[in-house]
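Morning!

This is the sequence you dropped in the shared folder:
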Amino acid sequence: MVYSATDVIPGWKGIRITDAFTEALGLPSAVDNVVRDAELNPNGAGSQAITKTGECLGFGLVTLANALDPDLIVIGGGLSELGDALLEPARKILKEHALPGPAKSPVVVAQLGLDAAIVGAASLVMLPSNKLF
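The structure's back. Tokens below.
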């Protein structure tokens, strides 16, 4: 199951990832159906939706990479489970549209997978309060 901020933050009014897929594809249970369709039909609507999402992610990465010039870009959370199906289009967009230095930043999936955000948040609790900001 894929979760977004709207699933875990009460009162959040953002766009749910699942709603975006449902609207784009007209499927009842969008994310599960998209992944299932992509597995069964590599050229079908599910695969196209994952590719398009990867491209959108790539444009976001271009903006961040150009501003921050990171040595490594780590993608975590629910959609990271899509792996290279999601990240290859993002990497392609990053390579084509970012400045020369940031365009070389490797994009990888977090080793902690779905737990990456919660482990990161928990690690902040362990820092002395004067080190947070």
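Headline: Helices lie at 5-8, 17-25, 30-40, 45-68, 84-97, 116-125.

More detail when I'm at my desk.
O.
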